[in-house]
Amino acid sequence: MAAFSYIAIDSGGKQQKGVVDADSARQVRQILRDKGLMATDVSATIKDADPQKSFSFSFGRPSLSVADLALITRQMATLIQAAIPLEEALGTVARQSDKSSVNSILLSVRSKVLEGYTLADAMAEYPSVFSNLYRSTVAAGESAGFLDVVMDKLADYTESSQAARQKIQMAMIYPAMLFLMAVGVVALLMVFVVPDVVKVFSTQGQGLPWITRALIATSDFIVNRGWLIIVALFAVVFGVKTLLSKPSIELNWHRQLLTLPLIGRLSRGTNTAQFASTLSILTASGVPLVEALKIAGEVLANQWLRQRVSHATQQVQEGTSLSRALSEGGYFPPMMLHMIASGEQSGQLDQMLERIASAQQRDLESLIGVMLGILEPLMLLFMGVCVFAIVVAILLPIVNLNSLV
Questions:
Q1: Rounded to whole angstroms, what are the CA distances from 290 to 132, 141, 321?
Q2: How many CB atoms lie within 10 A of CB 28?
Q3: Which of 76, 98, 189, 402 has the most CB atoms lying inside 10 A of its own CB?
Q4: Per-residue confidence of the chain (405 residues) as pLDDT tens digits?
Q5: Which alpha helices (DSSP H) does 9-146 contain, by range?
Q6: What is the DSSP string of 249-299?
Q7: Cβ atoms within 10 Å, residue 130
Q8: Contact at 8 Å (CB) between 152 and 77?
Q9: CA-to-CA distance for 239 and 352, rounded, in angstroms?
Q10: pTM to 2 decimals?
Q11: Nearest-5° angle of CA 372, CA 378, CA 379?
Q12: DSSP 47
């Protein structure tokens, strides 16, 4: 069976859209006729394109937001724990959703399951929706026979990821608004206020202070050649992306990024928290440690840390302990390494990794909170300094003129 999307017209002449599970398009039309609908278009749902053959800006590939993925994972976990068969659970979650993308993807996965595929293999049809971490965890749960427990852990993981993402986004709103306001105020002053003031000064025939001359030159440039700033910004962005597309340059940049005073700490915190969370859920779901390390390494955004984890994975495969292998990288927090060593010695590595993941997430949220707390007054200071400089540049010639008089 396969999932088909359709467009049909009901008895009242209104157009309806949806997705239905059937063996063929002909069967879909028959199902619609039985419901009193006249099909105008029936087509098979689009599977996720091969990442090796697709363009970066393909709009035809199905995708789900983190919130949608968290919701359907929790719904599936609840239904599977209630002893509802997998194919029925997939169909129920698909029918409950009012989003066509969710409906289409879940019905397509259900069709594969009905054909005899495992849930993990069926989800592999949509790698951009269900990540390698997600599929590997599901596969471990299926092979061990406790898919309900694994889906519940995945639901907790996706929900916590969504909550952390929302918290960061909400915290970034105020600094972003301050920055945009500062840039907007300065731009308005430069374009509309300064040129009018300059006209007054030009009629006096007196020498102007250096700060006033600098302000006038800046205003003239923004008014007459402001488009060059936009072009330069696009050129810089394009140049940086082009350079970072080369693996060697990207690797060196990510390595240097870890040494920067504040940004390096944030980068290490973000990557180690993600690594600990991924490794925790994989080991708790029964995935072998070496395989879990390979998958957890792939989720790291920093290429240098990913290379260090890959080297550590090879050492673990050769018999080295996980704590010792990670310590040789030199970038993981000492407390994290100590807790891993303790977990290995006590035989409770999965429980210890779960504690590490929670601790790393708390540390990351605390660090982000401190950085945002610093960023907000900096934005206010930036706006105040810019406005103060403009006011001083305007008032100085007026004060000099009054002194002469």
A1: 15, 17, 11
A2: 24
A3: 76
A4: 556 777 888 777 787 777 776 666 777 778 878 888 877 777 765 444 443 333 333 344 556 788 888 888 888 888 888 888 888 888 888 888 778 788 888 888 888 888 888 888 888 888 888 887 788 878 877 877 778 878 888 888 788 777 777 777 777 787 788 788 878 887 887 778 777 776 666 655 556 778 878 887 888 888 788 788 889 989 999 998 888 888 889 888 888 888 888 788 888 888 888 888 888 888 877 788 888 888 888 778 888 988 888 899 999 998 888 888 888 877 888 888 898 899 888 888 888 888 888 888 788 878 888 887 888 788 888 888 888 888 888 787 777 665 544
A5: 25-34, 66-81, 86-96, 100-114, 119-123, 132-144
A6: HHHHHHHHHTTSTTHHHHHHHHHHHHHHHHHHHHHHTT--HHHHHHHHHHT
A7: 23
A8: yes
A9: 44
A10: 0.64
A11: 90
A12: P
Pairing of strands 38-44, 15-22: unpaired
Q: Which of 292, 277, 289, 294 is nearest to 157 (CA)?
A: 277
User: Quick one: tokens of 223?
Assistant: 């008014």
Burial 148-157, CB ≥16 within 10 A → b, else e: bbbbbbbbeb
Are 258 and 360 in contact, with CB atoms under 8 Å apart?
no
The tokens describing 336, both together, are 């994290």
- Burial class of residue 122 in the structure, from the number of CB atoms within 10 Å of its CB (0-12 exposed, 13-18 middle, 19+ buried): buried
- Tell me phi and psi for residue 53, to 5 degrees: -115, 5
Rg (CA), the chain: 29
Tokens of 92: 């129920």
Q: How far apart are CA 308 and CA 231, in angstroms?
A: 38
Cα–chain center distance at 94: 25
The single residue listed with the structure tokens 């810019």 is 386
How far apart CA 292 and CA 317 sit, in angstroms, is: 12
In angstroms, the CA 331 to CA 263 distance is 14
Angstrom distance (rounded) from CA 38 to CA 21: 17
